[in-house]
Amino acid sequence: MAIFKAVLLYLKLYLIGNFLVVFVLAKSVPSPHEVLFSWKQIDYKFPNSNIKEKFLLEGEYIPENNVITGIKVHQNRIFLTVPRWREGVPSTLNFVDFNVTQEPSNSPLIPYPSWEFQELGNCTAIQYVQSMEIDQFGRMWVVDVGRVNTFTNPDNSCPPKLLLIDLATDEVIKEHIFPHSVVNHTKNFLNDIVVGCKNIQDENNCYAYISDADDSKLVMYNLMEDRSWFVTHETMIADPSATVIPILDGNYTFNTNIDGIALSPFDSNFDRVYYSPLSSFQLYSVLTSVLNEAVNGAILNDSQVITHGRTSGQSDGMAMDAVGNIYYGILSNNSVVYSNTTTEQIDETTEVLLVQDDVELQWVDTFAFDEEGYIYMTSNRLHRFSTETYDFSQDNFRVVRVFVGSKSYMYSAL
Ligand SMILES: *[C@@H]1O[C@H](CO)[C@@H](O)[C@H](O)[C@H]1NC(C)=O
Ligand SMILES: *[C@@H]1O[C@H](CO)[C@@H](O)[C@H](O)[C@H]1NC(C)=O
Ligand SMILES: *[C@@H]1O[C@H](CO)[C@@H](O)[C@H](O)[C@H]1NC(C)=O
Ligand SMILES: *[C@@H]1O[C@H](CO)[C@@H](O)[C@H](O)[C@H]1NC(C)=O
Ligand SMILES: *[C@@H]1O[C@H](CO)[C@@H](O)[C@H](O)[C@H]1NC(C)=O
Ligand SMILES: *[C@@H]1O[C@H](CO)[C@@H](O)[C@H](O)[C@H]1NC(C)=O
Ligand SMILES: *[C@@H]1O[C@H](CO)[C@@H](O)[C@H](O)[C@H]1NC(C)=O
């Protein structure tokens, strides 16, 4: 018995020792990541195979022009967007069900809320979604650019709009068409959205902030008043000295304005919007009190914009968690880092490496959180889209997650 106890004690100490080693390593080594889904090429769950054949034949589905970018997670559904940058994207807003789907590899995307809603040229339907957000009330805020084929032959026949979809019923419950004076119907690239609903008792007390990467502006929307307006500042424009992104063995040129945005968390009363042009090494922010009070078309003055510091590389999407950590990719390093926004300085010295992988994390595009402490991300090798150099014999598109133990900025950490 005594020997047995001694063995148990030894085992315990051994285990504790190992835990300590793991804990110490965890401080300096990137977190493990899990690839939940991967695709060589994006495919869809068509209503039937005849329709798929017809779409392929008539150029309504051109597989190589389909790239996943936006991601948001709600219960068992992972929502994914496919921008209509070039012809042949049959469905722009979709999901995969990670509880039901048995095919983590090349799983077909399911159009959301329906196939009918993906109809090109029908301005009631959805034309081109880059980003969406899901609020605490189970509503998806869908940003529809309106324009399609924006990289080839832009078709501007539908206006840009914001749709709210109730995820419990999959019904559209609100539509806001952006006026010309707020979002240019022939020039916009509405890119990313964050939403702050300050009062969990009042689902109308919400503001949305949306970046426009074409017109270099930040667009606001007040749900209670059903009103939108915009502000601009020179820090929302691409920095000409930051247009080249070295990725593995190549240099890639992107001249892209304000792109990823993030909102400080619920516990800070959503007081600040963070942003960065894709072509930039800087992270900037502005108080939401300034944005919420601004008149349409206002140019922010320099004292209203904070420059937080120089990050270690260009990034695309960014995301804030409930405790105020901001996450963003370092495109040149196939990695994701985070910084604590409680202090004003956010730069390469405050960045903590979260995850790095030269194969699986080439171009981390957009982030999402679930309610269990995971951060999700899409990686899509986007540098190979503009140069048309995807190798479709390999996995190019992935949904990856990492456990961080925190929820999205929308929730209180308390
Ligand atoms: C997955 O499905 C099982 C069985 O239907 C259910 O018990 C579980 O809660 C589901 N998980 C998620 C994440 O939806
Ligand atoms: C346009 O799309 C909406 C949403 O799917 C649908 O209800 C409507 O019937 C469509 N209109 C036409 C003219 O097809
Ligand atoms: C919208 O952009 C076009 C250029 O594409 C420009 O000619 C036009 O003046 C702009 N309209 C507004 C309202 O800013
Ligand atoms: C990328 O550009 C940098 C800076 O101009 C240069 O030093 C490097 O050799 C280039 N790399 C490639 C693969 O062309
Ligand atoms: C610039 O912003 C500061 C701080 O918000 C404000 O006090 C000042 O009035 C602004 N100046 C102009 C010219 O708008
Ligand atoms: C880049 O990745 C390496 C791992 O390959 C890591 O050690 C390094 O800290 C990363 N640098 C940045 C700036 O993220
Ligand atoms: C962020 O920094 C603040 C101030 O130094 C600190 O109180 C807080 O615990 C930090 N947050 C995290 C998540 O580490």
Could you walk me through the main structural features you see in this protein, from its secondary elements to its overall organization?
There is one protein chain. The chain has a single domain (31-403), classed as Neuraminidase (6 Propeller). 11% of the residues lie in helices and 36% in strands. The chain is built from four helices and 27 strands. It is globular, with a radius of gyration of 22 Å. One 2-acetamido-2-deoxy-beta-D-glucopyranose (NAG) binds next to loops.
Spatial ordering of strands, largest sheet: 10-11-12-13-19
- In CATH terms, the superfamily is TolB, C-terminal domain
Bound molecules: 2-acetamido-2-deoxy-beta-D-glucopyranose
What would you call the shape? Answer: globular
Helix percent band:
10-25%
Summarize the helices and strands and which ones pair or pack:
Blueprint: H1 2-28, E1 34-39, H2 49-57, E2 71-74, E3 77-81, E4 93-97, E5 110-111, E6 129-134, E7 139-144, E8 161-166, E9 171-177, E10 190-197, E11 206-212, E12 217-222, E13 227-232, E14 244-247, E15 250-253, E16 258-263, E17 272-277, E18 282-287, H3 288-293, E19 298-299, E20 305-310, E21 318-320, E22 325-330, E23 335-340, E24 352-356, E25 364-369, E26 374-379, H4 383-386, E27 397-403
Parallel strand pairs: 13-19
Antiparallel strand pairs: 1-27, 2-3, 3-4, 4-5, 6-7, 7-8, 8-9, 10-11, 11-12, 12-13, 14-15, 16-17, 17-18, 18-20, 21-22, 22-23, 23-24, 25-26, 26-27
One 2-acetamido-2-deoxy-beta-D-glucopyranose binds next to loops.
